[in-house]
Amino acid sequence: MTSLLLTNIGSLVTNDPARGEPLGELRDAALVVEGSKVAWVGRRQDAPAADGAVDLGGRAVIPGFVDSHAHLVFAGDRADEFAARMTGTPYSAGGIRTTVAATRQATDQALTANVGRLVTEMRRQGTTTVEIKSGYGLTVADEARALRIAEQFTDETTYLGAHVVPAEFADDPAGYVSVVTGPMLDAVAEHAKWIDVFVERGAFDEDQARAILTAGQRKGLVARVHANQLGEGPGVQLACAIGAAAADHCTYLSDADIDALASTGVVAGLLPAVEFSTRSPYPDARRLIDAGVTVALATDCNPGSGYSSSMPLCIALAVREMHMTPAEALWSATAGGAASLRRTDVGRLTPGARADLAVLDAASYIHLAYRPGVPLVSQTFTGGRPV
Ligand code: NIG
Ligand code: FE
Hints:
By secondary structure, this protein is of the alpha/beta class. It has 2 domains: 3-64 and 348-386, Urease, subunit C, domain 1 (Roll); 65-341, TIM Barrel, CATH 3.20.20. The chain has helices at 79-86, 96-105, 108-124, 140-150, 173-181, 183-188, 206-218, 235-241, 255-264, 272-278, 285-290, 311-322, 326-340, 367-370; strands at residues 3-13, 25-34, 37-43, 52-55, 60-63, 65-67, 127-130, 132-133, 157-162, 194-199, 222-227, 246-249, 267-270, 295-297, 357-360, 377-382, 385-386. The model has no long low-confidence stretch (mean pLDDT 98). Bound molecules: N-(iminomethyl)-L-glutamic acid and fe (iii) ion (FE). N-(iminomethyl)-L-glutamic acid binds at residues 71, 95-96, 99, 198, 226, 229, 274, 300, 302-305. Keywords: Cytoplasm, Histidine metabolism, Hydrolase, Iron, Metal-binding, Zinc. Zn(2+) binds at residues 69, 71, 226, 300.
């Protein structure tokens, strides 16, 4: 196995609490990669010899971003819907059906190319792990196709047949739930790790969501939930009651929702690019963090509610608009995402972890929020290789 020494790292974020909370930051550091993994981290002058070496000139190195929530398998865009929103038309879940119609029409090649394009954008911006959902097919064949495409790009595939009730089932939502829990689940189960439901007025109610998520659990999928995005509702409590990994959005929360998240350890996924793009109030990250809830930041990249692939944008918004500290925001975009996906091998740079990392054209991770909109990621490594 060949080894590579990355040296002259001005600031290295390890996310190793043994090296100091919250980020385990080391100054004037070095890191050795062996094969696809981190073999050693420490002070530059203590670094062991390696087969090759790269001098990073004092740049900062951070764990690659773990984007725990994205919808990348779709066709077309909704730029007109966005423009209308900016002059006052509110966001509604109904726009999903526009993308469903375009996605069903698209070829496999076009959908695969779209995912590839967005994953490339993400990698350029430092993302090394991304969760990818279905949810714009909403037929047995189209959902299975979306997940077969998604699994070409990630292990973190999520079955979201319960995104909205498609137009052809408008008069028979119960019939659609039977498809989602029956033949559609059978067709996708081997291609998905996770099952998700959009629990919201206009999408799925509590009873429907429980039936769908528990059917998925019986097939070995692990639950995650779109919860409390457009108003208070049962999503967070349901996620906590059934042992979901994550409740994402969390924009409208009651005190009881916060207590449930804190006591069950369900990760709250905050998706501030959505509030930015729908001009909505941001979730109250401080209230969650101060209550001891584990918070992940993710893009939710999708053509409707927020079409950004940029974790650095999410960090900047989390700091500026949600009052997270730069350290909290970086932790949530890396280790928090890993917690959301129940991964211990990513989101940290400690011996034995995957060598997934981003090199910043800056002296510290603080610049991610301090210099919003500037492409600071100069190199991304996944599994020890530059991409
Ligand atoms: O996470 N909330 C539901 N789904 C997406 C939006 C999908 C769309 O508008 O196309 C979301 O925001
Ligand atoms: Fe989403």
